[in-house]
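Before the break, one more example. Copy the sequence into your notebook; we will annotate it together after we see the structure.
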Amino acid sequence: MATSAVARETVFALRRQIAKIEGTLPERLQAPAAAPVDAPRNPTADVTPGDPTADVTPKKITPKNLTIIRRGLAVAPPDAFLRTGAEDLDTALGGGLPKAALSEIHGAATRDAGAVAGFALSLVSLILKQGPRLPVLWIGTAEIFREAGFPYATGLHRLFGIEPEQLLFSEAPRLLDALWTAEEAARMTALAAVILEIRGSPQRLDLTATRRLHARAQSAGRPVFLLRQAGEPEPTAAPVRLVLSAAPSAPRQTIAGPLAGSIGRSAFTVSIGKSRTALPGQFTLEWNPDERSFEERRAGERRQERAANPVPVVSASRRGKDPAPASGAVLAFAAVGSPAAGDQPSPGERAAHRRPRRAG
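Here is what the structure looks like once it is written out:
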């Protein structure tokens, strides 16, 4: 019995610690209207029959004796969330993406970089639509900008309503510099949002670094979007992680019906990879550039199917020490005018190679 009691206390302590980390620690609140504080308690409710030592004195319920369990995000004000416009996704996320927090948008492969960036720009468009049109800072390393490129200025205005001068870029030579810039920018209230784009699974992007970004976002009341390109879904301090990929676009709609062979609105496949309040789910969203909002595509609607990709996909970047294997056979071609195979240089040419190089 003593062993089971100790084990039970250990389990309760671990559950309490987990609840404290997740922000779901039971809090003692005021008594509800259905149970008034001064309501008398039944003196014989907890009395064992035949016990002469039982205390039958009437007792009152005090606020300290009442415990009501609530979740931190469930009681947040409605304006604390960024609603995407897709009702099912917003409902699954408990109201939308948190505004004053770090949100992770993950792309499994490099070819999904365009979809991840487009979805992030859509969220920025929603933010600028609701509040003051402040600038947005996009931070990344030279590696990610070389692989994924930069957004097109004309498309920013036409698709997302973002002026080119509103989107600022900061290209850092190292990941350490990018993280430092993101932390300093996350505390600034003069920015509408901060975007940090990282490629692969670097060791410096750990729980400590993401906790600092999340804390800065909470204190400033501004969102910080962490774009993970071609990396592993590793633990971060972001309350929400969305996994993005491109979805096949629908044909353009005309008065006579769908226009065959045309390409319609941009579409995204959004999966809830991690959330403190939501269950895993997958949604297909279309971005409406005219209304500046998302529209959910229903499962019963007929859309174009994505053709099979015959090109092999490069595996995600890992933290291993061994380099990637060779991509294939290496072909060598003889240069024009070069000696044939087996030819040896003349004695004069051989001696010239042994001479020291002269400057000037």
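The first strand starts at residue 81 and ends at 82. The mean pLDDT is 77. Try to locate both features in your own notes.
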